[in-house]
Amino acid sequence: MSSPTLRADAQRNLGRVLDAAAEVLAEQGPNASVDEIARRAGVGHGTVFRRFPTKEALVAAVVCKRLGEISAAAAALLDEGDAGQAFEAFVWQIAEVYARDRSIFEGLPQCAEIPDVVEAKHEFLDVVRRLVARAQADGAVRADLAAEDVPMMVGSAILGSTWSGADDAWRRYVAVVLAGMRAT
Questions:
Q1: In whole numbers, what is the pLDDT of the chain averaged over residues?
Q2: Spatial contact of 99 and 170, defined as CB atoms under 8 Å apart
């Protein structure tokens, strides 16, 4: 879907709103206030809602941006010679994102049915499938591992680590999950 060309100032404001939203939602999750996003962007509340008629639309835009970034990083790993190492690098990449960015971890379920998010998630899972298939073909990960399981298991480790109270618990939890994904 093509969008109309924005005036230069409107384009700058849109960029500032998206950058501020990504920052605020990463810190506070999808329940963050639009007022805080507008304040950090240096724009009025109305400016945010002119471009994003609902908060859900704003969260979806941030989620799509993050999924695109993760997908691009994962796609770059497809060129790595060692498929097992590429897969492990991917797991650590998404774990880092989940651990520091509440927008993707908490926001995705809230806007998962929005068409742009559905498409971004599809593209993400396509790259994950290719990473998993390569690693399985090399005997590096379990044959019964489904690509869709990978982000869910990593997310579960991150969620579980939040209850532990230790700042670095997520790293230990992800290491255990990753060990369980490896071929025996």
A1: 87
A2: yes
Which H/E stretch holds residue 143? none
- Total-model pTM: 0.83
Instruction: State the Cα–Cα distance between residues 149 and 145, nearest whole angstrom.
Output: 7
Per this entry, what is the length of the chain? 184
Distance CA 114, CA 97 (A): 21
Long-range Cβ pairs for the range 126-135 (8 Å, 24+)? 127/71, 127/74, 127/75, 127/78, 128/74, 128/90, 130/78, 131/74, 131/77, 131/78, 131/83, 131/86, 131/87, 131/90, 132/87, 134/78, 134/83, 134/86, 134/87, 135/83, 135/84, 135/86, 135/87
Q: Which residues pair with 90 in a beta bridge?
A: none
Closest to 74 (Cα-Cα) out of 53, 64, 88, 61: 88
Whether the predicted pLDDT of 165 surpasses 80: no
C-alpha to C-alpha distances, 5 to 41, 53, 149, nearest whole angstrom: 21, 18, 39
- Alpha carbon distance 132, 77 (integer Å): 11
Count CB-CB contacts under 10 A for residue 149.
15
Give the per-residue SS3 of 62-93: HHHHHHHHHHHHHHHHCCCCCHHHHHHHHHHH
